[in-house]
Amino acid sequence: MRKIMIAAALAVTSAVAIPVIAQMPTTAPGAKDPSRVKAGTYTVDSAHTQVLFEVNHLGFNDYFGLFGNATGTLKLDPANPAAASVAIEIPIAKVATNSDGLTKHLLGPDFFDAAKFPTATFKSTNITVDGNDAKITGDLTIKGVTKQVVLDAEFEGAGVGPMNKKDTVGFEAETKIRRSDFGISYGIPMVPDQVELKISVAFEREG
User: Residue 202, Cα to own-chain centre: how many angstroms?
Assistant: First the structure.
């Protein structure tokens, strides 16, 4: 009897799963084709956006950490890409490392002081486009201090998301900052001042 019930359950599961699988796209819905980009206002797809930071570990190796749950908007017109603007907000409390002790330390006053400064922000002030690449100049605010930085960005893909059917675009960007510029000097020079930031972001078009 039990075998019959298991077989029946598997049959029902297969009957449900097969039509779903059949509806899945057979190729990636996004492609590195600028002609796919549509004008409009886009919002950050928080589930598929990450900000990675890299700093040297005491001269031994490079160490990585991650910020998630970013929010923000992108205003974009492919007919005039230089007129685009982007604003991103990053919740400091969402920092993640593979050390609970380090993560807790990063949230404290020696580093980000998340209780007092819960968010970091970036707001573009100028964008220069060259094919699929762009230099995005903007104001980066960390721990209440604002400095101008330049992101080296690259268009990664555009298309329609298979689940929500929203027009989606993706970019990657990177820059280097000195953490001391933002009042984060703990451990310098044993832990280097320079931090490399790498951003992978997806935006979904509103409407």
Answer: 7
Contacts of 181 by beta carbon, 8 Å cutoff, 6+ apart:
145, 147
CATH code of 34-205, in short, is 2.40.128.110
Asked if the peptide bond before residue 189 counts as cis, ω within 30 degrees of 0, the response is yes
Spatial distance between the Cα atoms of 165 and 23, rounded to a whole number of angstroms: 13
Say what the alpha-carbon torsion angle 155, 156, 161, 167 is, to the nearest 10 degrees: 10
Name the token pair of 17.
């799963």
Q: β-strands 85-91, 119-130: how paired? A: antiparallel
Q: Report pLDDT digits (tens) over 21-68.
A: 456 667 899 999 999 999 999 999 999 999 999 999 999 999 999 999
Cα distances (angstroms) measured from residue 107 to each of 56, 68, 88, 100, 176: 19, 14, 20, 11, 21
Nearest to 32 by CA among 167, 133, 157, 160: 157
- Which token pair is 122? 């970036």
- Domain ranges (residues) in the chain: 34-205
Model pLDDT for residues 89-132, shown as the tens digit of each residue? 999 999 999 999 999 999 999 999 999 999 999 999 999 999 99
β-partners of residue 159 are 30, 168
